[in-house]
Every structure is written in structure tokens, then in C-alpha cells.
Amino acid sequence: MNLTGSLAVVTGATEGIGRATALGHAGVRVAICARTAPNVEATVRELKAGDIDAIGMPCDVSDAASVEAFAAFVIRERGVPRILVNNAGIGRFKPLVELALEDWDETMGVNVRSLYLVTRAFLVGMQGAGGTIVNIASLAGKNGIAGGTAYCASKHAVLGFSKSLMLEVRQHGVRVVAICPGSVATPFTAKQQGRMPHNPDRVLTADDVAHAVLSTLTVSDRAMMSEVDIRPTNP
After folding, report:
1. pLDDT tens profile 97-116
2. How far is 148 from 81, CA to CA, in rounded Å?
3. What is the pTM of this model?
């Protein structure tokens, strides 16, 4: 797939993996969203400073009306994307007896409900033009973590969603890829200090994951990497 001139939509794009992915390939036009307007504006400025055609607006990806407004904005300003990176995600790590219903619902809203809302908002146009949907999952989508019932359940759901959607849309020229990183040095990880590895200098970086995303996008149009695990070489 030749990415030059392609439009990429990236959610949760103002920090971590989303930001690295948005900055990752010259020649790609980018439309971003995140919850906080000043962060979106700052990231759009950074992208433009790097000679990237970029637009963005604040969006709560768990809210249907917010996603609908974002999709309408993107399509009106730049057209239908060829690339969609569903990156937005949160984690609430607590023993189940301490996990509030609000923690559970927010995790499922941002990590799972958003997949339905954002993908559905762009999918009809993509099925007509072709493209790739990349869902940022996690190795926690294949394994259990003590204190991670909500997070692990949500990432298992990301993998199930991705596998099923892939079977639905590949005949329409749309590829679906799930990226499953291990521990990544991002603000998300930093907020979970009790979960940091013993060797934080050896964990993956956001750029490592962005490189994996780019690799899945640039394979031949006749091929698809449907699921990619990425781990530190020597954690």
C-alpha cells in the first residue's frame, strides 16, 4: 500500500503511541482527535511544523454524538480516510472488589465501545475505497493480569472485534490489523507506577509501536498482517 497522500485518522493522538503514529510517516495527511482541546491544538501545530497536512478536533470516542461530529468534520474537510488507527485507550488497575462500576464502564466505553462507534462512522466510505483499520490492542488481550480485570477484558474484546471485522470486510478491500504491544514507556504506563517493569529502560517506546503500525500499512495490497505481537527484546 502506497501511503503518500493517504488520509489517516488517529484517535487518542496527543500522546504516547497515538502521537508517535501520527508523526510517523511523511506524505500522509492526518486527522486526529483526543478529549482535550488544547492538546489537540498543540499536536496539530506540531504536525504542521513537520510539514504534515493535519487537522484535529476534541472528541470523546465513547460518546456517539461526539464521534459523529468528528467523523463529519474529517469527511467534510479531507474526505474518507484510507487508514484508521483506533488507539484511544485507558486503564483502571484495581482488585475487583475495589473496582467501581464507574471504572468498569469507563474502561469499556473508551476501549471497546469506541471501536464500534469510530469504526462504524468511517467504514462505509472505506469499503468503497479500500484501506486499513488498525486497532491498538495489547498482550493483555491474550493474558490475565492481577488487578487488570477491566483492562484485560477490554483488550480481549479488542482482539475479538478485530478478528470478526477482518472476516467481514476483507472482501471489500479493507484490511483489519490488531497490534498487541507489551510494556511501552508512555504516559499511560507512567500512570501505572505499580505496574512498571524492573528495567524501564528496556521497555518498548511509542516509536517502536508506531513502526509496527507503519509496517502493517506498507505491505503489498494483496497481503495483510492481521495480528502483530511486539515485545521488548530483553525486558
Report:
1. 999 999 999 999 999 999 99
2. 34
3. 0.92
